[in-house]
Amino acid sequence: MTAISDDRQHVRSRPPTGRKGKKGDRDHCLGRSRGGLTTKIHAVVDAQGFPIRLGLTAGQAHDGQAADALLNHLGPRTIVLADKTYDADRIRELIQNQGATQNIPSKSNRRRKACFSTRLYRERNLIESFFSKSRHYRRVATR
After folding, report:
1. CB 3.0 to 4.6 Å from 55: which of 42, 85, 91, 136, for a disulfide?
2. Rg, the chain, Cα only
3. Strand arrangement of the beta sheet that strand 36-45 belongs to
4. φ and ψ at 79, to 5 degrees?
């Protein structure tokens, strides 16, 4: 009896994971983690909770990397409400250079705490409501 060699590492079939990146290959905003392929959705909404700008990043990417692309078109006298993830000096400077005001809570390890209004921060529920509504759409929720 002869043994049949199988060049596959695992016997069970799996979906293709894509090709290894060629030179100049674009980032398709897919991140690899233990749970599989992941993507993060970043959003800027207006005072009524309607989306103004959307962005995608890979699942393992830091949220602050998307801030440059999403916050580069702010108008003067705009108030930016963001969570602690966006507490970085470069993001705060980006907002201030456009004439806007930021209301971002400081991280616990920051030595010099920034000015922050908890009363104004309550309006951030609009962004959470936007993401809650977007999960009702199957194409968004399953991807």
Report:
1. 42
2. 21
3. 31-33, 36-45, 51-58
4. -105, 125
> How does pLDDT run across 107-130, given as a tens digit for each residue?
888 888 888 888 888 888 888 888
| Cα(90)–Cα(53) distance, integer angstroms | 20
91 and 64 in contact (C-beta within 8 Å)? yes
79-81/101-103 β-pairing? parallel
Evaluate whether 96 touches 78 at the Cβ level (below 8 Å): no
On whether the CB atoms of residues 85 and 63 are closer than 8 A, the answer is: yes
User: What CA–CA distance (Å, rounded) separates 112 from 143?
Assistant: 39
Distance of CA 111 to the CA centre of its chain: 26
- List, in sequence order, every residue forming a beta bridge with 54; answer none if it has no partner: 43
**pTM above threshold 0.70:** no
Structure tokens at 99: 């004439």
Distance of alpha carbon 61 from alpha carbon 40, whole angstroms: 8
Alpha-carbon gap, residue 125 to 43, rounded angstroms: 13
State the amino acid at position 141 in one-letter form.
Answer: A
